[in-house]
Every structure is written in structure tokens, then in C-alpha cells.
Amino acid sequence: MKGKILISQPFMLDDNFKRSVILITEHNEEGTVGFILNKPIEMELASLFDSGEDFEPRFGYGGPCCEDTLHYIHNIGGLLSESIPVFDDLCWCGEFEELRQLIKEGAVMSDNILFFLGYSGWSPGQLDAELETGSWIVSETSVDQLLKGNHETLWKEVLKPLGHTFEIISEIPDSANYN
Known about the structure:
Elements: E1 5-8, E2 21-28, E3 31-36, E4 40-41, E5 59-61, E6 65-74, E7 84-87, E8 90-92, H1 96-105, E9 113-122, H2 126-132, E10 136-139, H3 143-148, H4 154-159, H5 164-170
């Protein structure tokens, strides 16, 4: 599961996960951790980074767990100690003070990193049970799609390659009032 994405089933009603795409960064006997990729939020935290105008941090709602914590995924693992590999050159976490310095030096650009408030978490066996009931579709994606893609349309984009039925479902408006 680590490095895979979870795509919420088209008719999931849970407001936390409705039309969500979640990157799984950790999956083991202790549970599962991931981040919702397609719920961007506007934040003014530039003071955290002391960066020039070239760096505009992008933030997302990572999930309903610990919404007061800051997390990040990135493709600069070779530059940032304590980074945890997820897949290919995508990593999770890393030493925050080093990250701040790399941003200040211009070694990290906005399309190298995504920040999240909170995360999505499952206790041991919980995600497996949700998969058995059909709540999620497990799929793959690319680092470029994660870091550089249009997150507002990501749910539709990852559904379309799954076949004709999902392609049609991806075009259904979020609210029945728009039909």
C-alpha cells in the first residue's frame, strides 16, 4: 500500500473523504498514514520559511487527524535528512530546520513540495476492512502528478483511466442540484 493512492468511491458520503485522493505514506502492522491530495487550502505561513518571492508554499487539508500539525511530501530526499522514502523519488517528512534553510537558499521550489495540515490515519486492520467493503479504489500515480498536477481536478483525472464506467461517473456533478 505504501506509495499507492486511495480514490474514494464515487458515492462516498463522508465529508472528510468525499471525492478524495489520498497518498499512502505508511502502511504497516501499527496502522496506515496518508494525506488527502486534492483539498487545497489557502494559508499565509510565508513567515515560517523566510523565503524569496519565488517560493509560494502550497497547502492542503491532509485529513481529520491532528489538524494542528504540519506535514509535507517532497522530491528532495537527497537534500533533506530524516526524509522517509515513499516511492520513486517521493519522500515524506524530513528535518524541518534544514528544509527552511534549503528554501531560504533557493534550493527548494514550490513544485518540489506539498504541505498538509493534519493527516488521514487508520488503526491496524481498519483500512483493510474499508477496502473489503469497497469504500476505496487502490491505484498508482506519478510523482509529477502528485507534486505538479492540478489537485482540484485530481479525483476526476485518476478515475478516468480506470475504465469507461469510472470515466462517466467522474463527470457527475458533486451536487445533484447541478444536474
